[in-house]
Design brief:
Two copies of one chain form a homodimer. Chain A contains ten helices and 14 strands. Chain A is an alpha/beta fold. Chain A has a six-stranded mixed beta sheet, sandwiched between helices. A five-stranded mixed beta sheet of chain A has the order 12-11-10-13-14, with helices on both faces. Chain A has a three-stranded mixed beta sheet with strand order 5-8-9, with no helix packed on it. In chain A, strand 8 and strand 9 form a beta hairpin.
Chain lengths: 312, 312
C-alpha cells in the first residue's frame, strides 16, 4: 500500500502551451519531473483529467501529495481565476490568499494568487507566477529585480516586500517580429547565439543620444543589412539586442535603476544570460540569484499557507 | 494595327505581395488598372513573363507604352537593384538616376531610384516608392509629411526638395502583434474601425507624463481587458491607437513637429484616416493632400526623365 510522505509536494507550472509538474522535497530539491505539451489552450478545459493522468505514477508511489499551482492556471483562461494580491506584499500576504480545492481521488490542489500593482498607468499591472520567483529569490534586500520573459517584469523589493512592479512586452515583440516580420525576412537564424551581433544591437539603442524609441530603432535591422553592416546571420540577434536594450532604456527612464546600480536577473532559461549581458553593457552590476527561484518561492508560500491553515 | 498613343504611360506598383499596373494619361488620370497577386516573392524571378502577360491587352490596343516602375521592384529582392539618391533631392535629381531597360517585345521599362538619408543613425535610412508620393504631393511648401505604412516615413520638405526623412516600423509592429501575439489572443476584430477604442489607445500614450515607451504601453492592451476597461471587440483598435500614437510621440521627440504644427498625411489607403485622426488628437493641423500622389509623382518624374533623355 502506498504511504504518503508528508514532506513531499507537487509544484505545477501549467502554462498556456505546456504542462510541467515537479516533485519536490521540503528543501526544494526536485526529485522527479513530468513535462507534456498539455498547455491550457490545448486541453479543452479538462484540467482534472490532464492533472490526474499526469501525476498518477507519483500518486501510486506516494499517495495523495499536496499540489501547489501558481501562474496562468489560476488566470481567467485557466482552471480557477485567482485574485491578485496588491503590492506591497510578502510571502505571508500571498499565502493568506491561496485557494485549496479537494480532489475527487483525495488530496488537494492549492492555487496561489497573482500580484497586482494598482498604481500603474493606465490600468493596474499584473503578474502570475513571477511573484513566486521573487519570493524564492528573497525579499530581504532593497533591490530592483528584472524577470525576463514574454512579458518581462521589473520589480522593486523594499522593506521585506515586493513594493512595486511594471510589465514590458519585450519577449513578445521580439518573438513576433523575429518570426513574422518583413524586417527579418532575410535573416538566417544561427545555431548558437551570436553575442557580438546582439551587443551591436544593444549598443545602437544604448548609445543613441536622441530621445528615440523602439519604432525608430527597429528599422536599423533592415538598414544595417542594406548598408552591408549586418549579415543575414547577424540579424536575429541584432534585433534581440535592439528590443532588449529598449527595455533597459525604458526601465531606466521610468526610474527602475540609476547609473551604475546593482540589479538582479531572475529566471530559469536562456533569457537570464541575455539580460545579464545587457545589464553589463548598460554598466549595471548583477547580483547573484538562484536558478530555482520559482520552486523555492512556491514552496515557501506553500509552507506558510499550511501553517496558516493549521492554526485556523 | 495597334497605334501607339504617345501620351499614355504605364505606372507599375509592384511590391512584395502584389502586382498593380495603372494605365495613365498625361494628366495622371487612371484609364485602366490591372491588379494580381503576383508579388515579387511569389513569381520565382520571372519578372518579364509576369509583366508581359499582365499588360498584353494594353499592348494589343495601344502598342508598346512606356512603363515606369518605382518601389520594391527596384530593390535588392526585385528585378533590378536601383541606387538610392541622397537627400536633399527634388524630382529632377530622381529623374536623373532612372534606368531605362528595353523590352524584348519593344518598348521600355524605366526603373526609378530610391532615396536615402545618409545622416540617419545608425545606418543610412532608405525609401523606395514613397519619394514618388512626396513629389506628387508637391515640394513647394516647407512642411513635415508623414507617409503611413508598414514602415512609415516622416519626411521634411524644405526649399523645394525632400530635405530629410526617417522610418518608423509602426505598421509592421501593429500587424505582427495584432495577428500573432498573446496580447491580442482574446481580441475580436470588429467589422468597422472602432474609433472610440482607437482614440482611447492614442490618449493613453499621448497623456502619459512619464518618459515611457512602447514596450511599457503595450501591456495596457492586456491590463485594460483584465481590469474590465476594454472589451475584446475594442482591443485591436486600442492596440492600433497605442502603436500609432507611439509613432507620433517618437516623431515629436525627434523634432519632426512641434506643438500645434501643421503636417500632411499622404497615402492612398485606410491608414490616412487613422493618421489624420491621430494628428488631430495630438493637436496638429492637417494640410490637405491629393489621394493619387504616387501616380502624379511617378508621372512627373517620368516626364522629366523623358525630357532629359531627349536633350541628351
Amino acid at each position: 500500500m502506498a504511504v504518503q510522505a508528508p514532506s513531499l509536494r507537487i509544484i505545477l507550472d501549467w502554462g498556456t502551451t505546456s504542462f510541467r509538474a515537479l516533485l519536490v522535497d521540503e528543501s526544494a530539491a526536485v526529485l522527479d519531473r513530468i513535462e507534456t505539451e498539455n498547455g491550457i489552450q490545448s486541453i479543452a478545459g479538462d484540467f482534472l483529467g490532464v492533472l490526474q493522468s499526469a501525476i498518477a505514477p507519483w500518486r501510486a508511489a506516494h499517495g495523495p501529495i499536496p499540489i501547489y499551482a501558481a501562474g496562468m492556471i489560476g488566470s481567467r483562461n485557466g482552471w480557477v481565476e485567482m485574485p491578485y494580491v496588491p503590492v506591497p506584499a510578502d510571502a505571508e500576504a500571498l499565502a493568506a490568499q491561496v485557494k485549496v480545492m479537494p480532489l475527487p481521488e483525495g488530496g488537494t490542489i492549492t492555487f496561489l494568487p497573482g500580484l497586482t500593482d494598482r498604481s500603474n498607468y493606465p490600468y493596474p499591472d499584473v503578474m502570475r507566477g513571477e511573484e513566486t520567483q521573487l519570493v524564492g529569490f528573497g525579499l530581504d534586500r532593497d533591490l530592483t529585480v528584472v524577470l525576463p520573459g514574454t512579458h518581462s517584469k521589473w520589480a522593486r523589493i523594499a522593506g521585506g516586500q515586493i513594493a512595486s512592479f511594471q510589465t514590458l512586452v519585450t519577449g513578445e515583440v521580439f518573438g513576433t517580429l523575429a518570426r513574422h516580420s518583413f524586417l527579418s525576412k532575410v535573416a538566417k537564424k544561427p545555431e548558437a547565439p551570436d553575442w557580438a551581433a546582439f551587443l551591436k544591437g544593444v549598443a545602437v539603442v544604448r548609445d543613441d543620444q536622441r530621445p528615440a524609441g523602439l519604432l525608430t530603432h527597429l528599422f536599423a535591422v533592415r538598414t544595417g543589412w542594406l548598408s552591408g553592416a549586418l549579415s543575414p546571420a547577424e540579424m536575429t540577434d541584432y534585433l534581440s539586442g535592439i528590443v532588449v536594450a529598449s527595455e533597459f532604456r525604458e526601465a531606466k527612464a521610468l526610474g527602475w535603476y540609476g547609473e551604475g546600480a546593482s540589479i538582479a536577473v531572475v529566471g530559469d532559461d536562456d533569457l537570464v544570460e541575455v539580460y545579464k549581458r545587457t545589464a553589463d553593457a548598460f554598466g549595471l552590476a548583477v547580483v547573484p540569484a538562484v536558478e530555482d527561484a520559482a520552486v523555492r518561492g512556491c514552496l515557501a508560500i506553500a509552507q506558510i499557507a499550511e501553517r496558516l491553515r493549521h492554526k485556523a
